[in-house]
Amino acid sequence: MPYRLLKWVTPNQLTIARILSAPVLMVLVYLDDPATNWVALVLFMLAGLTDYVDGNLARHRNEVTQLGRKLDPIADKILVTASLVMLVSRGHADAVPTILILMREFAVSGLRQVAVADGVHIYAFRAAKWKAGLQMVATGMLLVNHDPFGLPMLAAGRVMLWAAAAITLWTGYDYFAAYFRQVGQPPSAGAPPSSFRDEPEV
């Protein structure tokens, strides 16, 4: 990755740019035209790319900050959920899996705050990465939604969204199960009370 091309850009600026792209995506989805659909997909993909770049750039420059750790997962959730809610409003995404995804994200975010207060250490599950990936793929397909070149993009996106909702609920259950398994147990020897705070939220 030619990081020298980004020497005037900080990782946190890339994360904030991802957040700011959400309202633009909402407008593009609202316009609901094949041309704006493609623009929305390109913007969504570029915003998703910043998720990869900002983390690697922060580690490459040794610029990892608490603000970046907190904003990065929030930016991902804003990008996906804003797009999905607008897609539901335009009739391109199903409401039920979207609501299930939103419920899980709110519940796990709240759980993590409770776990920090209780000194419980819950680490990110590998399946949570699949959850994030499926959500991104499903959202990208639904942003196109007009079945270009005869490809059933809309139908495939809806199937992928249900799959994303299923794995999202599964990983949410894992987080809650891990928390309740550890409640009441003494902290591990040598584990700093704030170690959970440094884990990425997915």
Please tag this protein with its features:
mainly alpha, 202 residues, Four Helix Bundle (Hemerythrin (Met), subunit A), single chain, globular, 6 helices
How would you explain this protein's 3D organization?
The chain is mainly α. Helix 1 runs antiparallel to helix 2, helix 1 (11-31) packs parallel to helix 3 (66-89) and helix 3 (66-89) crosses helix 5. The longest helix is centred in the last third of the chain and has 30 residues, at 153-182. The chain is globular, with a radius of gyration of 18 Å. It has six helices and no strands. The protein has one domain: CDP-alcohol phosphotransferase transmembrane (TM) domain (Four Helix Bundle (Hemerythrin (Met), subunit A), Up-down Bundle).
Specify Rg, calculated over alpha carbons.
18 Å
Q: Could you tell me the mean pLDDT?
A: 82
Q: Uncertain spans, ≥5 residues at pLDDT below 50? A: 189-198
What CATH architecture do you see? Up-down Bundle
Strand-pairing-aware structural class: mainly alpha
Largest sheet: none
Compute the separation of the termini in Å: 24 Å
Q: Work out the number of β strands.
A: 0
H/E element order:
HHHHHH
What quaternary form is this?
Answer: single chain
- The CATH topology is Four Helix Bundle (Hemerythrin (Met), subunit A)
CATH superfamily: CDP-alcohol phosphotransferase transmembrane (TM) domain
What is the helix content?
over 70%
Number of helices: 6
Total number of domains:
1
What gross morphology would you assign?
globular
Strand content: under 5%
